Amino acid sequence: MHRPIPEQGAWIKQVVRGFFAYHAVPTNGAALRAFYYYVKRIWLRTLRRRSQKDRFSWQQMHSLAADWIPQPRILHPYPDKRTGNSGPPGPTGYSGHPGPTGSHLFLQPGADTPLPLKEPGKPKL
């Protein structure tokens, strides 16, 4: 609160950049914009409390925020773009990726080795 504005701005920039690095995933844009707005609002309130005479305006805050606070943007791609998988997961959990022998394998709970999937057929009565 009593530090110079450039020192505060550098610290806030570091905090916001770290927050965005973790939370900037697809479909989280509204939360990023809300975080940006509230960081600006709290910093403005803090700057206004520095003096009884100081009236820091929103116009001043917008220009200060443009200098120091990074704009919210999505930094991470959708998982299917990042990993190259497409479609729903197959029996192995990797979009139908074949197992080591070329057939689809799965692990039973508690099993150490994968078992081949049974061929689809008539249900036994």
N-to-C SSE string, H for helix and E for strand:
HHHHEE
Our measurement of the CA-to-CA distance between the termini, rounded to an integer number of angstroms, reads 76 Å
Largest sheet: 2 strands, antiparallel
Strand numbers in spatial order across the main sheet: 1-2
Gist?
With 125 residues, the protein is mainly alpha-helical. It is built from four helices and two strands; from the N terminus they run H-H-H-H-E-E.
General description of the model:
- Helices cover 44% and strands 3% of the residues.
- A two-stranded antiparallel ribbon has the order 1-2.
- Strand 1 and strand 2 form a beta hairpin.
- Helix 1 packs across helix 3.
- The longest helix is centred in the first third of the chain and has 20 residues.
- It starts with a helix and ends in a 9-residue tail after the last strand.
- About 6% of the residues have low confidence.
Task: Write the topology of this structure.
Layout: H1 5-23, H2 29-48, H3 58-68, H4 79-83, E1 105-106, E2 115-116
Antiparallel strand pairs: 1-2
Helix pairs in contact: 1-3
List keywords for this structure.
125 residues; mainly alpha; two-stranded antiparallel ribbon; 4 helices
